[in-house]
Amino acid sequence: MSIPVLIHLLRERLSWREQPRVPEPNLVMEDAAQAASFSEAGEDGGVLAFLHLYNALQITSVLHPGDRVLDLACGPAHQLAQIARLNPAVQFVGLDASPTMLACAQRTLARAHVGNVELVQGDMVRLLDQADASMDCVICTMSLHHLPDQTALCATMREVRRVLKPQARFYFTDFGRLKRIATQRFFADDLRQSAQFTEDYFNSLRAAFSVADLSAAVALLGQDVQRHMTALAPFMVVFRSAFQRPIDLPTLQRARQAFAKLPATQQDNFRSMAQWFRTGGYALPCKLD
Ligand SMILES: C[S@@+](CC[C@H](N)C(=O)[O-])C[C@H]1O[C@@H](n2cnc3c(N)ncnc32)[C@H](O)[C@@H]1O
């Protein structure tokens, strides 16, 4: 972890004032420029590639071969494609409210030659096309902060509970709300991306729910919940079911190949993210290098 990051995190720790939540200006990402900028960041070698592999590995540990898995707000599906590639014996449904994003997702899946994902348009707050007890697992990455308010967040969790089979599994990860606007600005600027991406990132950090609000909503699932956070501040938060599948050898080999294909800076970012979570008490299910 760099010294500037550490300084910001320590200031977060010491701060007693909290920023109010500012919902995303575009809840559903329909704007073509915004969707393109986010999608580009998720491509092979893009700035989000390391995060996709990190999340994919953690999410793999809540999946079983043969599962049917719903990904809420899949966006351009770079994250979903990475999870699907690691888990070829799992069937995924990627849901998003934005036709623009779903068109990006279609292209992502075709380019990645991923055949175990079906895409559907829908609202995660009301899963109209998903039957009761039809899913073995529901996942959601970097999207809950796109909901307008706590009421919508709670409604989403009630829908997750409805579509999950009894005692089925889940994995949600998102930003947690930071206390200081200076820390939010620092992280948004730190990636040194386009003005569009930087502004969208800043807006996402401002729209993040507090850990308390996320915890209260996830409690509606009525299951044991494991909560994990990056050390010192909840920059990233994970809520997951307790089930932990050991990573088998073929999956480990696929993950290692994916890691080897990351550019060196992305490999470093992967290691930093893994260490940041590990320091907060949440380790990866296996080592990639
Ligand atoms: C920041 S993107 C995250 C995409 C993806 N999960 C990832 O990790 O890369 C957020 C996505 O949430 C979608 N979204 C926002 N509100 C939604 C809703 N109520 N139902 C379904 N999708 C929604 C947006 O259209 C956008 O594609």
Secondary-structure blueprint:
Elements: H1 3-14, H2 32-42, H3 49-60, E1 68-72, H4 78-86, E2 91-96, H5 99-111, E3 117-121, E4 135-141, H6 150-163, E5 164-175, H7 181-190, H8 195-207, H9 211-218, E6 226-229, E7 236-240, H10 249-261, H11 264-279
Parallel strand pairs: 1-2, 1-4, 2-3, 4-5
Antiparallel strand pairs: 5-7, 6-7
Helix pairs in contact: 1-7, 3-4, 3-11, 6-9, 7-8
The site of S-adenosylmethionine has 20 residues, from helix 2.
Can you give a write-up of this model?
The protein is an alpha/beta fold and 289 residues long. It has a single domain, classed as Rossmann fold, CATH 3.40.50. It is built from eleven helices and seven strands. A seven-stranded mixed beta sheet has the order 3-2-1-4-5-7-6, with helices on both faces. Helix 3 (49-60) crosses helix 4 and helix 3 (49-60) crosses helix 11. The chain is globular. The model has no long low-confidence stretch (mean pLDDT 94). Bound molecules: S-adenosylmethionine. Residues 27-29, 38, 42, 73-75, 79, 96-98, 101, 123-125, 141-143, 146 line the site of S-adenosylmethionine (SAM).
